[in-house]
Design a protein that fits this description.
The chain is α/β, with parallel strands linked by helices. The chain contains 21 helices and 16 strands. The protein folds into five domains: about 45 residues, no CATH class; about 80 residues, Glutaredoxin (3-Layer(aba) Sandwich); about 180 residues, Rossmann fold; about 80 residues, Ubiquitin-like (UB roll), CATH 3.10.20; about 80 residues, NADH-ubiquinone oxidoreductase 51kDa subunit, iron-sulphur binding domain (de novo design (two linked rop proteins)). Strands 2-1-3-4-5 form a five-stranded mixed sheet. The chain has a five-stranded mixed sheet with strand order 11-10-16-13-14. It has a four-stranded parallel sheet with strand order 8-7-6-9, with helices on both faces. The longest helix is centred in the C-terminal third of the chain and has 18 residues. The chain starts with 6 loop residues before the first helix and ends in a 6-residue tail after the last helix.
Amino acid sequence: MDQHPLLLPLLDKALERRKHLEPADIEDAARSAGLPAALAWETANFYPRYQARGVRWLLVDEPVLRSRNFDELLSALKEAAVAAGVAAGTVYSYGLEAVGPALVVEDGPERRVYAPVDLEGIRKLADGSEPGTLAELMPRGLARTGGWLLDSPGKLPDLSGAGGLIADVDSAGLRGLGGALFPSGRKLAAVQAQESDVKYVVVNGDESEPGNFKDRWLMEHNPRLVWAGAALAARAVGAKEIIFYVRGEYTAALARVEAARAELEASGYFEDLHTRTFRGGGLYICGEESALLESIEGRRAEPRLKPPYPAEAGLFGRPTLVSNVETLAHMALISLRGADSYREYSPKLFSISGDVRRPGVYELPLGTPLQEALETAGASDTRAVLMGGAAGTFLRFPENASLPLDYDAPRALGDSIGPGALMVFDSSRDLWAAAESVTAFFAHESCGRCFPCSLGTPHLHQLVLRWRQGEAQPELMRQLGETLEKGSLCGLGQAAPWAVRSLIDRFEEVAR
């Protein structure tokens, strides 16, 4: 790396010495990182991890739970917290929708996660009892089907074959699987074409959106495949350094990714590549590729104006490939199995949760009909599917039973498979309660960089609350949604109104 030590790891080291940061810690970290003290203070105040808050009990808020007994669980948690003299509240997705409800016990920067929890377990908290099963590691058994991505490869691809990777990725038809679905070959080629003596590959493991958990599974249970894809991509574009950015709350994933890195480093697999694992800032906006780069550089995670794109001027102004965890795993598979074989099968991971008997991570061929995917997970009496996660849209069911889950068919209807989340709701669920969770999430996670998003997302949430109270204002919601889509700087604000708009337009019986 052609820069000073990085600020966030320096703050993390200081935080390890005690449960809070002292002013001297922040100023020492700033000096070591070669950054102004004012910028370091701004960064430390931006990321929740560096703000000491004592003990808190936090119920994980996500759309499926909101449509069930969320209010009852939260009320019980608050009662228990009052009895114990601690604070209580909510927090957003931990990638545990398939095993929830989930509860986070926070003590400063330290967190213990329990899932599943129920009313009885929550009430026992006041007596000092454990509320449920510790869930630091995502159960391996949540991989409900076998497949190329879910089975650890016995042999990793030879990096000497990286010269043909871009052509193979193009031929295979791979797209970015973090949600944007941009052609991966074009992204690789754009970085390769830049003339620079320093280039980077950054692995985007900041999976933070409710409904999505397939990247967490890969990081915890098959990280070697992801590292192999990143190493191939680095060789293909001419990069010498790989930074694997893991969501800050995913402590088990961080440990597994680092262990895999150390193993591959010791075996000589990386050869002349420099690699490092980076603990993310702990905010949803960090998953936006340019905000992620700002985070690594020690700044607030705010999206940059584009152009220039990261391929031209990314990390520290150098050409940078930012690629999603699953996307890089696919690149390794393409190298191992060949573009023709890959294209014939076209695997894709889906995070399926909600009203299904077997929630989990499923590897299915692209183009699998929606009904087949739901039946595989054991769905019945399905009324709606929130496809794509929080930044997705509600689909009516069974009207969309035959919809192919691929890149193009959903887009023809104004939808997208996004990262591959399918949140299933049966006929007993309150869809507007789920929408309330979605809009609360976006309002909470807006970084504040642009006014349409920072002002619009809380207002949209308030409109949903008023709708649930009988004050329906669909036209105002549509107008606000259009402002968010057209005026927001990044995908967070642009996608915030999609779920709400799809409810208004597609579910007349609830759009009163």
